[in-house]
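hiii, so i know i said id send this last week but things got crazy w the move. better late than never?? heres the sequnce for the chain we talked about at the cafe, plus the structure i predicted for it. fair warning i was half asleep when i ran it
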Amino acid sequence: MTALSYDNLFERAQAGQAGFIEVPMDGARIVILAEGQSGAIATRRLGGCSGLVILGRSAAIMAHIAPRPPTVQQSATASQQHFQTLLGQVEQLYVTYRGHFPVETTGLGYYVAGFSDITDELKAIANQRLTALGLNNQYTYYNVVLGANRRDEVRACVQLLGPGATFFYIEQRLIEDIRFPAPLPDRQASQRTGHASQRNFLAWADSAGRSVQMFYGRQVEPDFGRLSGIYDVYRADAQGRGTWLKFDFSTGTWIGTKANIEGDLDTFEWFLWYQIRLLPLRAYPRRTRTSPSFTEL
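okay and structure toks below
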């Protein structure tokens, strides 16, 4: 990172360019990118503040935490309470958008050097709570900068250079370099996201008589024996009309407004039952030889 790079990043964020976020003091923000897209999240004027980042493959969370709330007198207790409040915002963002973070996701705290009597307590709090979220976590220190670059202009940045390269900098110093493996079709991916390239669902066309898996924007042959959890299933009938369904591969059941899909076992249902061997026939009510009626979700 260079000063020019930081300036360019902050200009993009202020202009509202997608994929670029500036985090204000006492704020926590998240950036979510499409698979393969590049972007960044950054903050400035750190001098004396603490912070947290959660580093993912195509998403990152950053918090910038002042030593205390602006209206409260400095004390160890005030610092800890304020830190925990912002840490709670980080936790909420992570839990809400957990589907965007792979198992290799890392949490990292950064603290000003030379104040161990305060920062040791903050490190312990962060370690306990990030570990409770199932995150690998660590910490680092930074020194305030004197001279031409004023001490309150210390900056930090997470760059996500898709696909799969995530970097964390404080000023020009590279703190963390993570190369995430490509997502695999048997891994859980976000089912609810605005980015089509992040989706993970099955698609079936009656005219083709076969199923494909749309995983991170690419077609793959589904390995039904390895799928687990709830998947969206898109079915296009012979006339091209589409219906969204949900199927739980862990239990072998359809999910909808009714316990099971009414009507006879048609080609689509038989296909799933044959492939995964999880759909016990007893899970279905007695069938009649009428056309199947799928519940639209």
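btw The domain at 3-179 is CATH 3.30.1330 (60s Ribosomal Protein L30; Chain: A;). thought thatd interest u
miss u guys!!
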